[in-house]
Specification:
The structure is a single chain. The chain is α+β, with helices and mostly antiparallel strands. A 6-stranded mixed beta sheet has the order 1-2-6-5-4-3. Helix 9 packs across helix 12 and helix 12 crosses helix 13. The longest helix is centred in the middle third of the chain and has 27 residues. The mean pLDDT is 87.
């Protein structure tokens, strides 16, 4: 057994033993002399699993630390450490020193988050980034915990009737043609992409340091950034989604009241939101081979936002506004 700098006892393996774990179903790599089981992380790798596959069962230290090939942030090294399962016999195990260690010690992730987040103050945002990649967290220590988790697919039951009603009203009540409804629906889709970008950049990533401000950020977006692979906390909870939907409906009715296509526009906004949550789920949990390359590229951009630089790639539904506003 080998005892790491953090005090954990790790099993030792020969390089030949590690080489046996060279498949997608059983994927080990060596980095800095430590062995990591990355089987469950392959589909979440920001650059795509294709980058990792050639190094399964092998020492990937050189490629992992070569910034010309693939830049890895401090957060990336912290995430990799969570998959550590052993150390190479007669290898030199290097422990990278990081300020993440201090930040990680500020909160006990096995206990409810709310009372602990309240006390973080100026350390809050650094703590969020230092802990990106946690599997699960407990938010409340009471009955509210069950209401903080929702299956991502509930959006179809909630928003499909709204979408159908909006286009029905556009066609029957407003009396516009199918072609006009499609046109205004595309306008609504573009409006959603702009709204999504602004919401993500200026609200979800607002800098806070006060207890109230930190709690606001934690609930609207911080939860997702520390547990990006938790599928039960991937979508807006229904109550928050209803508030956003009602606000968008009012906004659309106000600024587009002069056009007969206003209901079709809102229908397009709803399509945009459903597309947003569907793509978001795929980016974190899907790997279908039939997806177009542009969608795979968008997945890489979104995961880069999580694991490399959260000041870039705000768009989920579309990278258009990141390109136009220089955040791509």
């Amino acid at each position: 057994m080998h005892r790491s700098a953090s005090g954990l006892s790790l099993k030792t393996y020969t390089c030949a033993e590690v080489q046996a774990h060279d498949s997608e179903e059983d994927a080990w790599i060596i980095v800095d002399g430590y062995i990591h089981d990355v089987t469950t992380f392959l589909t979440d790798h920001p650059g795509g699993k294709e980058i990792v596959l050639p190094y399964l069962g092998r020492d990937a230290t050189e490629i992992f630390t070569d910034e010309r090939e693939h830049v890895h942030s401090e957060a990336a090294f912290a995430i990799l450490k969570k998959y550590r399962v052993g150390v190479v016999i007669d290898g030199i195990a290097r422990e990278r020193v990081s300020h993440n260690e201090r930040l990680s010690s500020l909160v006990d992730v096995t206990k409810p988050m709310v009372p602990q987040i309240w006390k973080l103050n100026e350390d809050y945002h650094d703590w969020i980034h230092a802990n990106t990649g946690l599997d699960k967290i407990i938010i409340f220590d009471n009955f509210l915990e069950k209401f903080s988790r929702w299956p991502w697919w509930y959006i179809f039951f909630m928003w499909t009737p709204v979408m159908i009603y909006s286009f029905h009203k556009a066609l029957v009540v407003d009396g516009i043609s199918i072609v006009s409804a499609a046109y205004w629906g595309l306008v609504g889709l573009l409006m959603w992409a702009a709204f999504e970008y602004c919401l993500h950049r200026f609200i979800f990533h607002i800098r806070t340091s006060s207890p109230i401000g930190n709690m606001f950020h934690f609930f609207v977006h911080g939860i997702h950034h520390i547990t990006p692979m938790d599928s039960t906390r991937l979508t807006f909870p229904p109550m928050f989604a209803l508030l956003v939907g009602a606000g968008l409906s009012r906004f659309t009715q106000t600024i587009m009241s002069h056009t007969r296509g206003v209901n079709a526009i809102f229908g397009g906004v709803v399509i945009g939101y459903v597309l947003y949550d569907t793509l978001h789920y795929y980016f974190h949990h899907g790997e279908p081979k039939w997806m177009p390359e542009i969608i795979k590229k968008m997945k890489t951009l979104h995961l880069n936002h999580h694991y490399k630089n959260d000041t870039k790639n705000y768009g989920v539904t579309s990278p258009l506004f990141d390109f136009l506003l220089g955040t791509n």
